Recover the amino acids of this structure.
């Protein structure tokens, strides 16, 4: 086998690579196109136009390009992403792309082409409803959370996994951009002057900031389970019938509620971008995600052979309640950082001026409310909270 040294691929070398790997034969005529959004990674779509056979080659870049600047970023995240996709694939094969090949030196993962699906953020903005989205993501999240935790894996093996997923550079991005910068006057923040008084109120809001500090502390130290780490609606491909989770380069061992909170927040951001009469489908997705999560979790709990106290349902309820409370808090952080931090969501940014400002103010208000009422909010409460 060939030992590769790192160099960024281009259309020609990407084709050469997949032929070397025998994913296509030497004689096939292939077309390659770079389709990534280019801040952290290259993504090549490679297709044989005669047979329509196609694959995706994703390669990590050794730096992050953000607002004209660039800083170094470990290539090891490509291996973490590939391992996480395979791990997810062993638990919920129908909900992630197949991985065909990975090379650590090249920081390349070759995977199933999902171009027949749409990125769910894009689809939701266009009014798609994705009737199975919450069923699938609820099941995905419960399987990953339970089956990579101490409730399903022997403690010694689980600690090996924790070590395998140590991901300091990418965790640091989250620690800064989700839990720190938006709550202080940092120059990475990004918001319009019309929002300044709301933002300055947040910066002096010690009650909300204390909750953010606690959630950040948990993110930094709690190794409960393998989390995806970047589970917004842009990391989910969907159609009427299928759902596929991609892009776990931020994966690490973290809190049970983190992914759930980010997913819920991104559904809420889309909800806030819509007129009142078109919101219920999103709110139903939130309640369904949590229902399915709990049902799936409880089934896995009863079946698990590892943790000696599993049969006591009070213990399961305690963990689920802690998971939901954390998810509400993480959703609050995500609502705020997507509104005034570095990375916004198109759902809201693409609205006309007045609607955008209203949606942004509502997102800040809701984010603050979630942070300061974590233990009181049920999945069914979002409907009323959104209307207020
Ligand atoms: P990044 O980490 O840079 O955000 P992603 O993994 O999210 O990279 O991929 C960026 C884009 O590339 C996606 O939004 C999607 O358009 C395309 N893409 C990524 N993976 C696939 C895939 N398996 N099949 C089809 N398109 C993909
Ligand atoms: Mg991207
Ligand atoms: Mg990514
Ligand atoms: Mg992405």
């Amino acid at each position: 086998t060939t030992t590769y040294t790192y160099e960024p691929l281009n259309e020609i070398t990407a084709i050469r690579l997949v032929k070397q790997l025998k994913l296509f034969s030497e004689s096939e005529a292939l077309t390659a196109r770079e389709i990534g959004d280019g801040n952290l990674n290259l993504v090549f779509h490679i297709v044989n136009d005669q047979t329509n056979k196609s694959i995706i080659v994703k390669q990590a870049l050794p730096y992050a390009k953000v607002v004209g600047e660039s800083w170094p970023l470990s290539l090891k995240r490509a291996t973490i992403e590939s391992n996480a996709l395979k791990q997810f694939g062993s638990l919920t094969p129908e909900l992630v792309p197949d991985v065909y090949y990975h090379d650590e030196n090249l920081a390349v993962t070759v995977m199933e082409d999902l171009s027949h699906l749409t990125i769910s953020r894009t689809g939701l903005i266009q009014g798609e409803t994705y009737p199975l989205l919450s069923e699938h993501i609820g099941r995905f999240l419960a399987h990953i959370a339970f089956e990579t935790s101490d409730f399903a894996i022997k403690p010694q093996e689980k600690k090996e996994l924790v070590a395998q997923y140590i991901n300091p550079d990418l965790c640091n991005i989250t620690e800064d951009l989700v839990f720190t910068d938006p709550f202080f006057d940092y120059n990475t923040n990004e918001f319009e002057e019309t929002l300044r008084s709301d933002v300055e109120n947040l910066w002096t809001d010690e009650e909300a900031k204390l909750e953010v500090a606690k959630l950040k502390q948990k993110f930094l130290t709690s190794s409960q389970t393998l989390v995806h780490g970047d589970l917004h609606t842009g990391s989910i491909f969907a159609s009427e019938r299928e759902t596929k989770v991609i892009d776990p380069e931020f994966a690490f061992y973290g809190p049970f509620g983190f992914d759930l909170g980010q997913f819920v927040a991104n559904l809420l951001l889309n909800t806030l971008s819509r007129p009142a009469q078109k919101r219920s489908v999103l709110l139903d997705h939130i309640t369904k995600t949590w229902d399915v999560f709990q049902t799936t979790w409880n089934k896995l709990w009863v079946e698990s052979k590892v943790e000696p106290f599993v049969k006591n349902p009070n213990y399961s309820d305690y963990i689920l309640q802690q998971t939901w409370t954390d998810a509400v808090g993480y959703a609050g952080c995500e609502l705020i950082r997507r509104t005034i931090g570095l990375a916004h969501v198109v759902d809201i940014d693409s609205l006309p001026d007045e609607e955008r400002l209203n949606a942004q103010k509502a997102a800040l208000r809701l984010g603050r409310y979630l942070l300061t009422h974590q233990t009181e909010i049920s999945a069914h409460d979002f409907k009323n909270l959104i209307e207020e």
